[in-house]
Design goal:
Layout (H helix, E strand, L loop, with lengths): L1 H19 L3 H21 L3 H25 L15 H21 L7 H8 L4 H8 L4 H22 L23
Length: about 180
């Protein structure tokens, strides 16, 4: 239980670092820490296949993709005080209220889960076959919702880092001096 609490705390610290970091690379590294601690939580639950997939796919491939996008778009510089998207704060408040309302609706219709023994028998200890069968049959809609959420997150991160470039004034051309083949 103590190991679970330590890993949960590490996961929360990584999540807070991901949100609070002003540097995009630090945010990605916080997300890597969160994903690795989540993989370790899977190991404590004896779901070794899910832990391996978590490390290989998310902490490995997806984070390499995120780092590549951050480096490609030169997003390593700190965020300026001006919002690159107009009305982003107002939209965040509106969507936050909508999210809180939808969570209240979900919690209102909450039904207790089935027994742990039945769920564990369905997953057969985290082996790939049963996990895939359950994931792509009973949980297909949430699975696709998560993939859509990841797509929106990548598009949003690209939109946030595409800032208009500051155009510098071109240097004025030097005035022609008389005596160098020109007449005054």
């Amino acid at each position: 239980m103590i190991l679970f609490l330590i890993l949960a705390l590490l996961s929360l610290v990584g999540g807070v670092l991901t949100i609070a970091a002003s540097n995009a690379i630090h945010a990605v590294l916080g997300l890597v820490g969160t994903l690795i601690s989540l993989a370790m939580l899977y190991v404590t639950l004896d779901a070794h296949f899910l832990a391996a997939v978590q490390v290989i796919v998310y902490a490995g491939a997806v984070m390499v993709l995120f780092l590549f996008v951050v480096m490609l778009l030169n997003a390593a510089r700190p965020v300026s005080s001006r919002d690159p998207i107009p009305y982003v704060r107002e939209l965040a408040v509106i969507f936050g209220v909508l999210l809180a309302g939808s969570l209240l609706l979900v919690l209102n219709g909450y039904a207790p889960p089935r027994s742990l023994a039945n769920a564990a028998s369905d997953l057969a200890g985290g082996a790939p076959g049963p996990v895939g069968a359950v994931l792509l049959s009973k949980f297909l809609l949430p699975f696709e919702a998560v993939s859509l959420l990841l797509l929106v997150a990548v598009i949003g991160s690209v939109a946030l880092v595409l800032r208009p470039q500051v155009q510098e004034d071109p240097a004025p051309e030097p005035a022609a001096q008389p005596g160098r083949g020109e007449t005054a």
